[in-house]
Structures are given as structure tokens and as C-alpha cells.
Amino acid sequence: MANTKPEFLDKFFEQIESQVQFGDSKASLLVARDAILLAVSGGLIKMVSGCRGGDFAVSCIVPSMTLGLATTAAALLTLSLACGLLAARPAKIHNQPPSELFLLSYIARIDRDAFAKKYMDASPDDLTQEALRAIHGKAGYAARKFRLLNTAIDATLLSLGFMVATLVVAICGRVAA
Q1: 11 occurs within a structural domain
Q2: Is 16 within 8 Å of 133 (Cβ atoms)?
Q3: 8-state DSSP, 95
Q4: Is there a domain that residue 1 lies in?
């Protein structure tokens, strides 16, 4: 366990950074999975569209409950995909980074000697404040990422329910006919 404040801050920052990386991994998997499910959903829409043979056009679509269920599933998957992509997106702070010593996009934009001087001139209290700002900013970014992922996962789960409902209604309709 960390024995000093700087060691504790370092461990805390590492913990938050690992959560951001965990969120990025989840977002990548979610985007890939949703893309596959969206293709499946498109096939389901085509299947229940009412179009005959290999045709599939707006002019041959017959509105039905199954088409509504399949379309809802596709819309939810699209929402999930959008949320997953937003979660995977880099933080906007990097577009115009403030001058913070622990923000990589700021460090990369300044001269190496200017960075070294700024760091060397900073007192331990200044460095602690900079680290706390970085931790707070990274925590806010991680929280936003996980809110988007939560919405994406919920939308994917709902879409799966709509896809199953589509199949159940379509099969029951065929059996009853």
C-alpha cells in the first residue's frame, strides 16, 4: 500500500486510468458486436418485410407487427452503436488542452525544454495540485464513458428482446396460418 501522498496519488491515478482502458475495451467489443447484430437485424427486416423472392425495396414492404418489432430492434442497435462509438471517442479536452503538467496532449504540444523547466520549477504542492486536477478530469471522463456504455448495453439487450419477439410472432403467425 502507498505510504505517502504522492504514492497514493500515483496508485489512484493508475486505478482510474485502468478503468478508462477497461471502458475502451468494452466499447470496442460493443461496437463489433453491435455491427454484427445490426447485419443480422437487417436480414430479419428483409425476412419479415413482405417482399417476395430476392426483392427488397420500399415499394414492396408490407407494414406488419413483425416488421415493426424488427425495425425497433435495428433502431435500438443503431442507438447502441452510436453510444459505443461516442464512448470510444477520445476526450474533447485534447482538442485544445489546458496547460496541465499531467495532460499528455498539452505536453506533446509544448517545447521539450519548456516542459522540463515548468516541471522543475513546480513545487511539490504544485505537482500535487496538478495530479489532483488530472485525476479529477480523468475520473469525469471515465464516468461519461461508462454512462454511454451502460446506455449502449441496455439498448443492445432491448434490441435482442425485440429480435426474439419478431421471430416468435413470425413463427407463431406461420403456424397459426
Answers
A1: no
A2: no
A3: T
A4: no
Domain count, the chain: 1
Q: Grid coordinates representing 88?
A: 470510444
Task: Map residue 6 onto helix, strand or coil.
Answer: helix
Encode burial over 60-85: b for 16+ CB neighbours within 10 A, e otherwise: ebeebebbebbbbbbebbebbbbbbe
Question: Could you read off the pLDDT of 27-55 as tens digits, one per residue?
Answer: 999 999 999 999 999 999 999 998 888 78
**Structural domain of residue 39, as residue ranges?**
16-176
**CA 63-68-71 angle, 5° bins:** 115
Q: How many CA atoms lie within 13 A of 71 on its CB side?
A: 10
Considering just the CA atoms, what is the radius of gyration of the chain in Å?
Answer: 25
Establish if 91 belongs to a structural domain: yes
Query: How many of the other CB atoms lie within 10 Å of CB of 118?
Result: 15
Q: Tell me how long the chain is.
A: 177
DSSP state of 143: H
- Does the model's pTM come out above 0.70? yes
In this model, does residue 101 exceed pLDDT 90?
Answer: no
In a domain, 158, yes or no: yes
In degrees rounded to 5, what are phi and psi of residue 170? -65, -45
151: which 3 cell numbers?
A: 446506455
